[in-house]
Amino acid sequence: MAYGEGPDDAALQAAWDRFCNQLRQAGLSAFKDANPANPLQRADAFRFLTQNLGQAFDLALETRDPAFPQIHRFTTPTMKLGGDLADFTYRQAWICGDHVYRLSGKRGTARWLNVTVQGPRPDRIPGTAWPSLHEPFGDIPEANLFGHQIEADADGSFEVIVGGAPREKNWLPTTPGTRKLFIREAFDAWGETPTTFTVERLGMTTVRPLPTPARMIEATDWAGDFVTGLMRDWPEHPWLTSRGVCDPACLNMFPPDKIANDGSDAKRGRMAAHMVWHLEPDEALIVEMDWHSGFWLFGMGGAMMGSMDFLYRPVSYSPARTRVDEDGVVRLVLAHQDPGLHNWLDTQGFSDGNLTYRNLMSQAGAIFRTHLVKAVDLPDHLPEGTAKVTPDERAALLLERYRAIKLRFGL
Prior knowledge:
Layout: H1 9-28, H2 39-62, E1 72-73, E2 88-94, E3 101-106, E4 112-118, E5 141-146, E6 157-162, E7 171-172, E8 180-186, E9 196-201, H3 213-233, H4 236-241, H5 263-268, E10 270-278, E11 283-290, E12 295-301, E13 316-317, E14 329-335, E15 344-346, E16 352-360, E17 368-374, H6 391-409
Parallel strand pairs: 6-7, 14-15
Antiparallel strand pairs: 1-2, 2-8, 3-6, 3-9, 4-5, 4-8, 10-16, 11-14, 11-17, 12-13, 12-16
Helix pairs in contact: 1-3, 2-3
């Protein structure tokens, strides 16, 4: 049924056409050189795109008004982005320096928590000629609170005020350039529970206005830039610009001269290192690290650096879930098939991918050693007492993982 032509119809249609063209262009990036030309990883690139297509307008429109803030999960077991790590959860809320907010919730038992106020997103990475990473990334940490700095009631309930006049505790300052809250939580042992969060603007006495055509056009253009940006930037942008990310020129090893560990990393509460790996069908990679105290994490990623299938597969390890050899060395084994070793990192059958290390609440970097071997020869390269698992034990470990991940995300 026709109702006549609206005054904004042409502009709305043009914005939608631009978005569809950008989406088509984004799909072409699935075939770029950085994504291996094998069936599983070609399909995974399109999955990476479709997962983020599902959140494009949540970020661009539904949660984007800082006067009516909402917390949004931008990674889940079925949505990966930003070089996410399997044992982290990532949440954000668009805010601004014009308002004061109440962030409230109840503490869980996760080992690590960091709430950060993020400032402006510069066009260029400070001190370089490189463009910033695509939206919603690239902004600079302004202030943060770690979980142990947030005072809570006896039952774990807390309130943090964001913005406004300084307070003695549970306060985060903002600036005129503030644009979002960034909430990261990291888990060690299976069964640790997540922190709940909700956010509201103080003095919120009116309803949120409905999107106008102009607002819808703006959101559509933002979403188009988002889908093209994520397919363009991953993984090449971190290869070129990140201090902690190795590129394929240094394959199957963590280079000692590339570690993310400066003042902004301290506000993020971590140091980071990264390796790009490639395995032929008959190969395995042993990654060694001398055991050290602290809270460290290893996580596997695909070609686009999104985390691998952490709901169903052993693609991440932490201190509580890692077996240490008698010589005090942590040995993780990347292999296409289960080698019957406790510390197995599943490649999902991918020929290429990424392995990321995080060390939380510490700026001390580990020393890594890697050994590329034939999979059939693995026993010859491992200590006699290396922890093994039977098929039944593996199944039990995977079920424990599955239940714990669902608990983290409320699934």
